[in-house]
Amino acid sequence: MKILENSKLIERNKKIAQYTLYVSLALLVFGFIWSIRNTDPDKAMVGWLILLPSYFLVQISIYMANKWGKSPRPDEIVIQSLKGLNDEYTFYNYTTPVPHLLVGPQGAWILNPYHQKGVISFNSDKQRYQQKGGAGVIGKYFGQEGLPNVLRENENLKKDLQKYYEKRNINERINPEVINVFYSEVVELDGENFPVPCIKADKLKTFVRKESKNRELTPEELSELRRLLTE
Q1: pLDDT for 174-195, tens place per residue?
Q2: What is the distance between the alpha carbons of residues 76 and 70, in angstroms, rounded to a whole number?
Q3: Other C-beta atoms within 10 Å of 26: how many?
Q4: How many domains, the chain?
Q5: Are residues 60 and 103 in the same domain?
């Protein structure tokens, strides 16, 4: 598998993740100390004006750390999961509007990684993904361990790539599909009614190979798609 990635973007965001964490923690400590030492109501209000923004900054730092600060990063886990695919496949890592794009004989797949734990299922009546177990209420709320709106994220990713296709005059007859990749070691996928494929990271390569047995793109089409995505 060939890998094309935006190394500058990755390194820049790793540094931003680190700096954001340091600043948010420093503000929290400063706000806490100020609140303890200044009990006067007027001065105590200043402490809250420090603590509230620092809380939101902490949430941003957690998001950045999950995506960029920890090693292995989500993209590194996905790449490792695909290791062994032949050179018909190309993985575009942060080089297009969608973070992770895999192009192969079957067409283009948008790989959408999730670190959430627990049991993941799909409620057909409510038309939404559900999460049972995993982190507790505090972890889901403060540690961003709760499952987001997967369907909405999938649709937004597809729209972003379609706009990119239009901008680059890529007339792809095979519409890009999304694969939701769950890489936590303590996650379980319950059910076969997922409207969009949901795969555990260690099963991703097998899934891709199975789907690609029915080749959708000719070698010429695949080569042209790669060329347009690489330019």
Answers
A1: 788 999 999 999 999 987 789 9
A2: 10
A3: 12
A4: 2
A5: no
